Amino acid sequence: MGSSFLRLVGCVCCGVVLAMVARGVAAETDGHWAFRPIERPVVPAANGGSPIDRFIRARLAARGLKPSPAATESVQVRRVTLDLTGLLPAVDGLAQQRPDRWERLVDRLLASPHFGERWGRHWLDLARYADSAGYESDAPRQIWPYRDWVIAALNADMTFDRFVTEQLAGDLLPGAGLSQRIATGFACNVMLAGGVRYEAIVDQVQTTGAVFLGLTLGCAQCHEHKTDPVSHEEFYRLFAFFNGSVIERLPLPGFDAGYRDGTIRRPDADGKKPAVPSGPATLVVKAAPQPTHVLLQGDPRQPGEKVTTGFPAFLKIRWRADDAGAAKTPPTRIDLARWILSYDNPLTDRVTVNRVWQRLFGSGLVETENDFGIQTAPPLHPELLDFLAVEFRHGRRSLKKLIRLIVHSETYRQSSARRDELDAIDAGNRLVGRQRRLRLETEVIRDVCLQAGGLLSEKMGGPSVFPDQAAGVLDARATPAKWIASRGEDRLRRGLYTWHWRLTPHPLLPLFDAPDGVTACTRRDRSNVPVQALALLNDGAFFEAARGLGGWAWHRRESDDRRVNAIFFRCLGRSPTRPETGLVLQLLSRQRATLAGEPLACRQLLGLEPPEKVRTGSTDLVERAAWVLVARVVLNLDEFITRE
């Protein structure tokens, strides 16, 4: 009896504390900057520049600062090409000296099919995409059609409204077809194993909050949210949207397993019924209504009051045109999408444009990109944030239009060079007085290395592939798994298509801070550790790229300094300085001398087996091998793996 009394007292005290917290939270809700309605701000009357530039310049001027000068044209071209496609720019760059060449370049990049791959990778981070189920068993799963759907949707500039709605409720849309069902893979990317369905649904709620609302909804799983106005009951009303559905395997009969270029192959023209359900398949959401209860202290063994689907009340969002009808029937996942996308909701557009800004500048205008709650301080550029949100809405929520607006600004095209006067006042660059130097993501580092070596396959879509990886990576798994290296061009495809085991990913992924696919990743870390340099020097893919680049330079049959210039321009988008040329030529000379008496070392560098007969003489072997080592140096420059 004593222990029961203590538990009762504890619950009462906890309830009193939470009630006091809730009253404090409610008092802050109406005044919090992120919860206020979005309104078009007045653009500062600064001289010249786009509205974006005027907002930035006005805030800098208030601190006695000026924006940085424009980066060199070669840096701008490389920057925007990497940002929009994740690839190196074409050698010609902005060869045509036209006044509108920047605008034409941006339009060409936005129209490239590689745009969907680059920005699709960003979205897949949010969707916690992986090719296995996670947990100890980490069973393989087929969900690559969802990945290809994301790429195709972004390339088609699908409106954000439709993009979100199909992912949350594609199966419920009138006339829903295969594409809409595949889109629901967004929810199916959750980690899932037998006996953990509750945890999977909690993750679906948390992911929805982080990705679309910038709220930590999971904090209300066990009790009232301690900082934001989301109640324990409201968490389970959101929980009910996902609890009323199940994940099922959808066979894709009559479709080509190759799935080339992301194009779905229809059944035969003669209309005969196809034979696949053993072939390609994907995971999709299917409605399966069932009751939902508030779970006391977040414990599925303690069901409390029964609840239906619903939304946090503090945002006061109309989710149906007929408010009277809304009270009669519980909202569906379609209504959840409407609620998220309503213009009454000030969070979705602010969160989305902030995340796009983060991709293009390294950090968002709101630094806590996954938390716009009451504890988050207002950004230093709140008017610019709302200007972008309004423009996003007026542009029919087109991501391509928003990106075009930002990259056309002089702010985006600034130099990233450090400035003492700026560092003294704004070391974190929150005022955006310059651009940021950003180390490339792991997939992009590998992609551009292979591209520079002339090896990268541009094949799009299809099942995930297995590029070469070190032996033994899968040995420590609790359940056995195999990594059978792909052959042909599949082993040289973009990193976006690499099979991702959650439990034992390809070693390059965690080494360069790729997300683990366990939860929604709203921002990747950028670490700097010695092992990264060792991998860039010695990993098989990077050494193979150096062979390709060195062979490309050797085949040019030009003078040494012109070859060095060609390698620099291909990799860095610029010509080398005179001191750089001198250093590389010295390296080349030393390597020629060292390799002249080492035919076996030359063959190893070139990947030739000792018994192999080659038509070229020893001099050619030395030359080819020396250029491989030169290429290896350039591919390992910090500038190469960095976006200026």
Summary of the model, kept short:
The protein has 644 residues and is mainly alpha-helical. The protein has helices spanning 2-29, 51-62, 73-85, 101-111, 113-126, 144-155, 160-169, 178-183, 185-188, 197-213, 232-243, 323-326, 333-341, 346-361, 382-394, 399-407, 420-425, 442-452, 508-511, 530-538, 540-555, 560-572, 578-595, 599-606, 618-635; strands at residues 245-251, 281-287, 292-295, 303-307, 438-439, 642-643. The strands form three sheets. The chain has a two-stranded antiparallel sheet with strand order 1-2. A two-stranded antiparallel ribbon has the order 3-4.
Describe the structure.
- This protein starts with a helix and ends with a strand.
- Residues 1-22 and 256-275 have low confidence and may be disordered.
- The strands form 3 sheets. A two-stranded antiparallel ribbon has the order 1-2. The chain has a two-stranded antiparallel sheet with strand order 3-4. A two-stranded antiparallel sheet has the order 5-6.
- Helix content is 45%, strand content 4%.
- Helix 10 (197-213) packs across helix 11 (232-243) and helix 14 (346-361) packs across helix 15.
- It has 644 residues and is mainly alpha-helical.
List the helices and strands and how they pair.
Elements: H1 2-29, H2 51-62, H3 73-85, H4 101-111, H5 113-126, H6 144-155, H7 160-169, H8 178-183, H9 185-188, H10 197-213, H11 232-243, E1 245-251, E2 281-287, E3 292-295, E4 303-307, H12 323-326, H13 333-341, H14 346-361, H15 382-394, H16 399-407, H17 420-425, E5 438-439, H18 442-452, H19 508-511, H20 530-538, H21 540-555, H22 560-572, H23 578-595, H24 599-606, H25 618-635, E6 642-643
Antiparallel strand pairs: 1-2, 3-4, 5-6
Helix pairs in contact: 2-15, 3-4, 5-6, 7-13, 10-11, 14-15, 14-16, 18-21, 20-21, 21-22, 21-25, 23-25, 24-25
